[in-house]
From TrEMBL:
Name the UniProt record assigns to this protein: Peptidase S1 domain-containing protein
Gene3D superfamilies, alphabetized: Trypsin-like serine proteases
Organism: Argulus foliaceus
UniProt cross-references to InterPro entries, sorted A to Z: Peptidase_S1_PA, Peptidase_S1_PA_chymotrypsin
Keyword check for Transmembrane helix: yes
């Protein structure tokens, strides 16, 4: 009958879509970190005496941004990668580089850095190179005051000098006690419930955006697996006891199974252009992060 014929057409379409999706996934970055050999990534980063790797010899002006988009995907892992921008004048051949700013890798395309860091990229007469650092102790933002000192409220102006921040954000958990940066990656919440990933210690609260100028610590009884809630921010508590904002999300991509064997997840993954988080680009524009 025509119903059976139509059903066959639909079935063939889905089978072709599945084959295409699986073919595409062979050659693209994967949100789950373990398809990459973490041990090799670690060895790649640590075999340099200074714990760094140079991605480019010299990049002038705004072209540094295109360099990030080209090179960063291969370094994805469960450990945060810190990026440092060094520069010297283009009209010299000096090998004396100066670190002008630093940031942390948020997705395969973007890194988070203070606004003054972005200003350096607008100087067309200067040369820059990007340094990939592994597990560097420095944090990218200016520290905010102790949450308890401010009555569980802190102003974002202290962090980014008044840069407006979107209120539509997503998740992170605030770990208990002092947590080293390498155990607290901004993208970890998306794959947090996978068995192979380390579980962050039990929570004592989350940080939620109240409006465009305030953050509020929300006490929580969430489990150590930390199912994130809409509106949570990405926060790191440094060894100095102060909190550092590492980033924020505008949405969580739910892909179904961990390895994207679900056909709907595969198609969604392709349609979203291999995104690690949903809605990240609009948020990055708000944060002046490229």
């Amino acid at each position: 009958t025509w119903t059976m014929s139509f059903g066959r057409v639909v079935l063939i379409f889905w089978l072709m879509a599945a084959a295409f999706g699986l073919h595409m996934l062979k050659d693209v970055p994967h949100p789950h970190p373990y398809p990459y050999d973490v041990a090799k990534l670690r060895e790649f980063a640590e075999d340099d005496a200074k714990n760094q790797r140079y991605l480019n010899a010299c990049i002038c002006g705004e072209r540094i941004m295109e360099s990030f988009k080209v090179h960063l995907a291969i370094f994805w892992s469960k450990t945060p990668w810190f990026l440092y921008v060094q520069h010297y004048p283009c009209d010299t051949k000096s090998e004396s580089w100066t670190v002008v700013c630093s940031g942390v890798l948020i997705t395969k395309k973007y890194f988070l850095a203070p606004e003054e860091c972005m200003d350096h990229f607008r100087e067309e007469s200067e040369c820059y190179r990007v340094v990939l650092g592994y597990n560097h102790p420095k944090i990218i933002t200016k520290p905010i005051k102790s949450v308890t000192e401010l009555g569980n409220r802190v102003t974002l102006g202290e962090l980014f000098h008044g840069v407006e921040i979107s209120a539509s954000t997503i998740p992170i958990c605030l770990p208990r006690g002092n947590v080293d940066a390498k155990t607290f990656a901004s993208y970890q919440m998306v794959t947090m419930k996978e068995k192979n990933l380390p579980i962050i210690s039990p929570l004592k609260g989350s940080v939620r955006i109240v409006n465009n100028t305030l953050l509020e610590v929300i006490p929580t009884n969430r489990s150590p697996n930390c199912e994130p809630n809409l509106g949570d921010a990405i926060v790191h508590k440094g060894e100095d006891g102060r909190f550092y904002v590492l980033g924020m999300y505008t949405g969580i991509c739910r892909y179904g199974s961990p390895y994207f064997l679900n056909i709907f997840s595969i198609l969604t993954h392709i349609i979203e252009n291999i995104g690690f988080t949903c809605g990240m680009e609009n948020l990055m524009e708000t944060w002046h992060v490229h």
